[in-house]
Amino acid sequence: MVDLESKRETFIFYYKGEKKQRIDIFLSKKLNIPRSKVKSLLDKQLCSVNNNFQIKPSYRLKINDKIVCALDIENKELISPQKGELSLVYHDRDFIVLDKPPGLTVHPAPSEKQPTLVHFLLYHFPSLKKIGGERPGIVHRLDKDTSGLLVVALNEQSRMYFSELFSARKVDKIYLALVRGKPQKEQGIIELPLGRDLKNRTRMAVRSKGGKPAKSAYQVIWTDGEYSLLKVKIFTGRTHQIRVHLTTIGCPILGDKTYGGEIIVKDYKTKILKKLVKRQMLHASFLNFSLTNKEIKTFQSKLPLDFKQVLYFLLQEPLKVILVGLPGSGKTELAKYLDKDFFSADKIVHTLYKKGKDGYFLLRQMLGDEILNFNEEIDRNKLWKCLKDNSYLRKEVEKIIHPLVFGRWQEYVRARNFLPFVVGDIPLYLESRFAKDENVVFVGVFRPEEERRRALLKRGWSEEKITQIESWQFSQEVKLRQCTFVVDNSGDLKLLQKKAAILKNMLVKLKASKVKNKIFLVEEKIKKIETGF
Ligand SMILES: CC(C)(COP(=O)(O)OP(=O)(O)OC[C@H]1O[C@@H](n2cnc3c(N)ncnc32)[C@H](O)[C@@H]1O)[C@@H](O)C(=O)NCCC(=O)NCCS
Ligand SMILES: Nc1ncnc2c1ncn2[C@@H]1O[C@H](COP(=O)(O)OP(=O)(O)OP(=O)(O)O)[C@@H](O)[C@H]1O
Fold first, then answer.
1. Which residue ranges are tagged as binding site?
2. Per residue of the chain (533 residues), what is the pLDDT tens digit?
3. Looking at CB atoms within 10 Å, which of 143, 172, 453, 512 has the fewest?
4. Are 429 and 346 in contact, with CB atoms under 8 Å apart?
5. Which of 331, 333, 470, 496 most suits a substitution to test ligand 2, by most atoms within 8 Å of the C-beta?
6. How far is the CA of 329 from the centre of ligand 2 (A)?
7. From atom 13 of ligand 1, which residue's Cα is the shortest distance away?
8. Strands in 15-171 per DSSP E
9. Whose atoms come closest to the Cα of 448: which ligand?
10. DSSP 390
11. Candidate of 384, 385, 464 to mutate for ligand 1, largest count of ligand atoms within 8 Å of Cβ
């Protein structure tokens, strides 16, 4: 038998709980060691209850039971202090708050070969050795690839205080998560029980039977529809809670390979994203709790560099410059000067009408063979005649064609995510209410009536066609009123080219200031914590 009280690594507890609790559960929490380790201590008779050493793990503690326990030192000696950088946010006699970088495991585990945070802590805070155990001072955890705030107790009293605080859920914990997709609601609560995935034990899953209750609340800070930045508060602290809960609303955390957040390279944007995202984009950014003297402590961490890079990249959408103006005003000419590779809705419509393409089938189905020429191709003149006196049919055609054009426009923009701005010659953008988009800037093109009409006649349009097609569009005044910039195309093409060069400059500046503004607004929202959870 071991003389427990004469050993340096001895722990003495008096059980004060009202309910009878299993000793293995009690000691696992108190000593911060797994239950299997408690069992081995009991088996080795390194633990006693009221001086009785024959104790089973299922023994239920009664009030005032005296528990004496000696942690065997073999394991502890394995954790040798190691030099490593710690980013301290707060430090006093009792505890520290630090900013854990991604990729650092909190405490030793069989699968972890690299030094852990505990190794570094022992180097900087040798007094932690007194606390003992495999997890000295550790009162809560963050996954290896999650960054952010972690509290570490520096003495046994503080460790017990914080352990109780965390397990009684008296700590406000808020995380930031960059996710794929967009939650259906701006904010919401996810309350779904979690347990080990029965098919894959390394994963957690929602389990209505046998899962432990888990509750998270989220708010959307920013979204572009495809990716979102969420603020998540957790009310329970289950393993992988945020990661699993967010997948249940269709928003896996970017980079979280275990739960469907892997980045699949589809285009330029995802290619860059894959390079930037090296881990799950989850960051513990805020902690709030009260101390024994009732003082409330609040901590907020800065965004880690990799998280910031990904976020800024996602905020870098190009400015979408949409040219509007009446037919013949010179939109296409201006577009060419702004960007040779501009997007032309008219061109897209032309390709969609080609034999075998989507538009071709749909129009033929709707309007029959009378819009075809002898080669069974769509004859635009016949089509125009068909539509000119039938506004119902025209609107039906637009209902089919505009979403197809808009889809192509979105693809076009996505493939040019690296540019400061993209140019769309989309004459009906305003009229057809393409999706609302805060990144759009309208540029109006004005050309004197006579010159405009002359150009259209030259194009082969009849007076009737000019009047008719104009009547399908908003008036010049209504169009130009919605524009941030208006280009007066009264002179010749050379002058228009000069104006285009000036406009280009202004667009680049506008884009830079818009991004700056967007970053500012997002960062302000990140800082504002107590908003409606
Ligand atoms: C009316 C049609 C047959 C005329 O064809 P045509 O080859 O003569 O002209 P084109 O397609 O090059 O269009 C020239 C200009 O007309 C104007 N315009 C074309 N269609 C429309 C429309 N439905 N409503 C208002 N203006 C239109 C635009 O300013 C456009 O830039 C054709 O444009 C058409 O099928 N339109 C319906 C589809 C549509 O809405 N297209 C606009 C692109 S988003
Ligand atoms: N400043 C100008 N000087 C001379 N010709 C011009 C000028 N601006 C435009 N044009 C000519 O007028 C015609 C109509 O211009 P453009 O095709 O650019 O108009 P648009 O606004 O794109 O019309 P639509 O909406 O019908 O496509 C073209 O032949 C173009 O070359």
1. 328-333
2. 333 333 446 788 999 888 899 999 999 888 878 899 899 889 988 899 998 999 999 999 999 999 988 776 554 445 788 999 999 999 999 999 999 999 999 988 777 778 999 999 999 999 888 776 678 899 999 999 999 999 999 998 898 899 889 988 999 999 999 999 999 999 999 999 999 999 998 899 999 998 999 999 999 999 988 999 999 999 998 999 999 999 999 999 999 999 999 999 988 889 999 999 999 999 999 999 999 999 999 999 999 999 999 999 999 889 999 999 999 999 999 999 999 999 999 999 999 999 989 899 999 999 999 999 999 999 999 999 999 989 999 999 999 999 999 999 999 998 898 899 999 999 999 998 777 787 899 999 999 999 999 999 999 999 999 999 999 999 999 999 999 999 999 999 999 999 999 999 999 999 999 999 999 999 999 988 765 56
3. 512
4. no
5. 333
6. 5
7. 346
8. 21-22, 47-49, 60-61, 66-70, 88-91, 95-100, 147-153
9. 2
10. -
11. 384
Q: Binding site for ATP: which residues?
A: 328-333
Neighbours of 62 (CB within 10 A): 12
143 is catalytic: yes
Residue tagged 């699993």 (tokens): 244
DSSP state of 427: T
Structural domains in the chain, sorted by start: 4-75 (3.10.290.10), 88-315 (3.30.2350.10), 319-518 (3.40.50.300)
Tell the residue nearest (CA) to atom 2 of ligand 1: 384
In short, whether 327's Cβ falls inside 6 Å of ligand 1 is yes
Between CA 405 and CA 259 the distance in angstroms is 34
Ligand positioned closest to the Cα atom of 325: 2
* Annotated catalytic residue within 24, 65, 143, 256: 143
Determine how many CB atoms are found less than 10 A away from the CB of residue 201. 8
Give 424 Cα–ligand 2 centroid separation in angstroms: 15
Amino acid at 445: V
The answer to whether 183 and 249 have CB atoms below 8 angstroms apart is yes
Which residues, including other chains, have CB under 8 Å from residue 361's CB and lie 6 or more apart?
A: none
Q: Which strands form 10-14's sheet, in the order they lie side by side?
A: 10-14, 66-70, 47-49
Q: How many angstroms does the Cα of residue 346 sit away from the middle of ligand 2?
A: 13
> Ligand 2 pocket: which residues have CB below 6 Å?
325, 327-333, 346, 427, 455, 489, 492-493, 496
Residue 353 alpha carbon to ligand 2 centre in Å: 23
Residue nearest to atom 8 of ligand 2 (CA): 330
